[in-house]
Amino acid sequence: MPVRPLSAELAKKASEELNEDPQKLEDSLQHLKEWISKQPHLRARTDDQWLAAFLRGCKFSMERTKQKIDLYYSLRTTAPELCSLKHTDPKFMEIIDLGVGVVLPKSSNPTDPRVILVRLGAYDPSKYSINEIMSVNYVTQQIMLMEDDNFVVAGGVSVMDLQGATTAHFTQINPMLMKKMSVSFQDASPVRMKGAHYVNTPTFFETIFNFMKNFLNEKNKKRLYVHNTDFESLYKFVPKEILPAEYGGNGGSIQELIDLSKKKVLEYKTWLDEDWQYRTDESKRPGKPQTAEDIFGVEGSFRQLEFD
């Protein structure tokens, strides 16, 4: 299927910010498909819409796009825990039902980034692991890359509500996992993250925040904002009206957003079933196979997070 046409406003933004033009897109897609077919180690999706997301996320730099695609599928082999819970597992829908992460469908302007609300305290860390939570997030992001033009062209913004989050939630994240998460988010994903906003932060959050920043590049460090309970400062970045009703907005209830998420996963069931086969076979990579150590460094070199 050809790439879905962008709205006039997003097409203008893609042209100005991402170096996109229709002919360049078509030629680049063809080039990428040929390149993928010649990589003996790489089994990657070649849907036009999927590849277009990587091109746009890399501002049409062919070299960066190839590196990102290769790394995206390498992580499935070297860090399988980031997407270990399949969409067919009953736990998957249980986590969606909790509303740990919901996509806000409304935006104030046609070229605004897509906002994702994450409610860490919504899940019980004695029942679910952070790997399972991330697996659900991984699938949500895949669906957004396929069908959300605002997310792909304008980028994403996360609002992390830490109401009810405990040390038990954060001790699930060891330093190596934090490194893997940061490589996945910064280097392998084609998403242009425009900001992460933290609200209702617990007393011990500063320790975690400073620890987390060690894994981010300078650009992403500058896009972190801690508002705690000052929602007025959040609204300067995320308009109140697009937030769910529970947050005083007009963006639907949390339950409605959960139902929308479930509907999307069911719509993409065949696509997701098929997607499970794509990854790298490092034994067939020309030159040296990629290992977890190559990509993430050595486990022992990371200091454990400690709470006072």
From TrEMBL:
Source taxon at top rank: Eukaryota
Matching SMART domains: SEC14
GO cellular component, one term: membrane
Name of the featured protein: CRAL-TRIO domain-containing protein
CRAL-TRIO domain residues: 91-255
Pfam family, one: CRAL_TRIO
SUPFAM superfamilies assigned to the protein according to its UniProt record, in alphabetical order: CRAL/TRIO domain, CRAL/TRIO N-terminal domain
Gene3D superfamilies linked to this entry: Alpha-tocopherol transfer, CRAL-TRIO lipid binding domain, N-terminal domain of phosphatidylinositol transfer protein sec14p
MF (Gene Ontology): phosphatidylinositol bisphosphate binding
